[in-house]
Structures are given as C-alpha cells and as structure tokens.
C-alpha cells in the first residue's frame, strides 16, 4: 500500500560532488534515512539541457538576481562595477549563465528518490543553498564551505554538491525532463516497505 505522502523527487549529484568522490557518500545519506533510489544514471548534460532544467520565468530569474544583489549589498560591492548592471533580472540571467558552465563542466549523476515526504526530506538532508550557512550533518554543511561572496567574486555559480527539487511541481517537471517517459523501478525495501 502506498502511504498518502509517498512522493518522488529529483536529485542530482553535481560535478563538484562527482569530482570530490562523494557519489557513494551522498547516496548513502538518503538510503539510510529510509528513502528509496528508484532510478539512477551518470550523464554529461549540455548547455541546452541545463537551460531547460532551470525555470525560465521572470520570477525565478529575478529571485536568483535578488540573492546575488543581497550578497553584494552585504559586502558593500557595487554590482554595476562587477557585473555591469544592478537590475535583479539582468543579474539573474548572468547567474543562470554561470550555472551552465558549472553543470556542464564534468559528469553528474541523476537520481529519482522515492519516499515519505521525499521532496522536503531530500531538501533537509541536502541543506540550504549556501554551504557556508548549512548545518553540519547536511550534505552541503559537511562537504562544502562555498559562499556567494566567493562565488560571485569569481563569477561562477555556488558549488553546493547537489541539486534537489524544491517543490512537488519542480519535482514533476525535473523527473519528466531528465527521465522522459522511462519508468522508475519498483521494489520493496526491507524494513521500510514491509
Ligand atoms: P538550490 O535549489 O538550493 O540549488 O538553489 P536555487 O534554486 O536558489 O539556485 C540554483 C543554483 O544557483 C544554486 O544551487 C547555486 O549553484 C546557484 N546560486 C544561487 N544563488 C546564487 C548566488 O547568489 N550567487 C551565485 N554565484 N550562485 C547562486
Ligand atoms: Mg532550486
């Protein structure tokens, strides 16, 4: 029987996770929590795929721009001097380009994770976007100290080891996009499903 909050979510071990030799360590953390890996593949995406993976709507792009602007403000950096603009949407588009470079720089691992409240639990195990703020015990908090101040000054995306869907809508879009109509695998985990 499926639990009412049995969900699927999309997880990706990003190039820095792969290059740091953390594939096993990362997957282990989801499995030990009682979540189930139901699809898994190594792949090397191109820019076009990353462009379709991240939302293109103005709201999402401006939100990323706002985050970057907040860091510049905190550290008293003039965005116009560094990036040539102080418009949140324009800056969001620049960060999106940095994401293309980051995520096409080496192979990644794409995974579908299934379980109770999978979207929220996977995000919790992953930790917040900015590794320097992430608690120990989370993947980002245990294996990275990257910060937006450093990443922005080096004109690159924050390297935070994994991507995980933030909402059920994102999960649906990302699973469909990366796995197309290939069905996830079904099996019963000892001690979890029976
Ligand atoms: P996530 O869902 O936790 O991965 O974070 P978001 O969806 O907000 O952002 C997508 C990705 O963009 C993040 O994982 C980072 O790699 C990158 N990113 C987000 N905010 C910033 C920022 O302020 N500066 C830089 N350089 N990169 C950022
Ligand atoms: Mg996100």
TrEMBL record:
Broad enzyme group: transferase
Gene3D superfamilies in alphabetical order: Nucleoside diphosphate kinase-like domain
E.C. no: 2.7.4.6
Example of a GO MF term: nucleoside diphosphate kinase activity
Swiss-Prot/TrEMBL keywords: Kinase, Transferase
Record bears the keyword ATP-binding: no
Cross-referenced InterPro entries: NDK-like_dom, NDK-like_dom_sf
Nucleoside diphosphate kinase-like domain boundaries: 6-186
Pfam families noted in UniProt: NDK
Cofactor section: Mg(2+)
Sequence similarity: Belongs to the NDK family.
The protein's name in its UniProt record: nucleoside-diphosphate kinase
Organism the protein comes from: Candidatus Nomurabacteria bacterium RIFCSPLOWO2_01_FULL_33_24
